Amino acid sequence: MARLGSLTKAARSLGYAQSSVTSHVRLLESRVGIRLVQRLPHGVRLTAAGEIFYEYANRITRVVDEMESALNPAGEIEGRVSVGASALLLETRVGELVRECRRRYPKVHVSPRALDIARAADTVRDGGADLVLVHGDCAPANQAGIVVDELPGLEVVPVGPASLARAADPSLALAGLPVLAVDPDCDSHHVLVSALRELHGLDPQVVEAGSVGGARELVRVGYGIAMLPAESVRSATGADGMAVIPGLPRVRLGARLLWLGPERSLSAVSAVSAVATRQSRQLVPQAA
What percentage of the chain has pLDDT greater than the value 70? Predict the structure, then answer.
């Protein structure tokens, strides 16, 4: 919530109902006897006391992790690792990362969360996440005190309802369909908007979808079109209700892993970092 500025987004990233997150915040404020969160017309932000609480909470979490490692120096790797990821990577690569880490390191708990690309380096530096996976040209390449590992790029493809792939008049079929933006910080949907203007003379509305899963479902029901990771599109034939739209551009986005580096991280963080790097290099896009 502190990073996303929204109870709704925080609940989505944690997999909780918004009412549950709100209740936890109120309970916490009741226990400490001071307001930690300021409600705004379009979101929330931490109060001055909330910023202090947030900083100390991160310190406490790290101390607990260090204690667990100190108590078991020669044993199996264990600990908690928080992984922040931009929207496109959260729903394509992080799930596999969690499963692979669970298989390799049963005592390591990986906690994924959504992340704003623009705050990636600050999130790592401030202890808001141990590792961060970000995509796009806006992903920071050089940050003081941050180790940046280049990962294989992420291909995103223009996807629409399956009927679009068979349309006799693509311009007519595309008319009126909004462009679904999965991540406002990503430029891929701007590329799609520009292509629709240049190739079909259309000026589409841009609507935020919030997530890859949300965009995929909206595409399936014919509500709009979107730039989705090729890794998340099972085929280009429309067998799952959506298909890659012919004649529109694909985009290759850069991807990076940000963290503090092995010398400043716990063994569990280093282990998860190694899995994330190795796993991303083995990925093969599924779309044609």
Answer: 84
Which residues in 206-231 are b (16+ Cβ under 10 Å) and which e?
A: ebebbbbebbbebbeeebbbbbbbbb
Query: Which has the closest alpha carbon to 285: 260, 253, 261, 258?
Result: 253
DSSP secondary structure code for residue 245 in this structure: P
Structure token digits, residue 25: 């915040």
Instruction: Find the length of the chain.
Output: 288
* 276 or 67, greater pLDDT: 276
Residue 223, classed as helix, strand or coil, is coil
Task: Say how far apart CA 229 and CA 220 lie, in whole Å.
Answer: 15
- Identify the pLDDT of residue 250: 94
Torsion, Cα of 260, 261, 262, 264 (10° steps): -40
Q: Return phi, psi of residue 281, to 5°.
A: -75, -15
- List Cβ neighbours of 270 (8 Å cut-off, separation of 6 or more): 262
Q: How far is CA 210 from CA 70, 186, 264, in A?
A: 40, 12, 34
Query: Hey, which residues does 281 pair with through a beta bridge?
Result: none
| Encoded amino acid at 37, one letter | V
88: tokens are 């496109």
Among positive and negative, which fits the CA dihedral 57, 63, 68, 71?
A: negative
Q: Render pLDDT for 155-186 as a digit per residue (tens, 0 to 9).
A: 999 999 988 888 889 899 999 999 999 988 88
User: Which tokens go with 30?
Assistant: 């009741």
Stretch (H or E) spanning 235: none
Mean pLDDT of 46-50: 89
**Predicted TM-score (pTM) above 0.85:** no
Query: Which tokens is 41 given?
Result: 């017309």
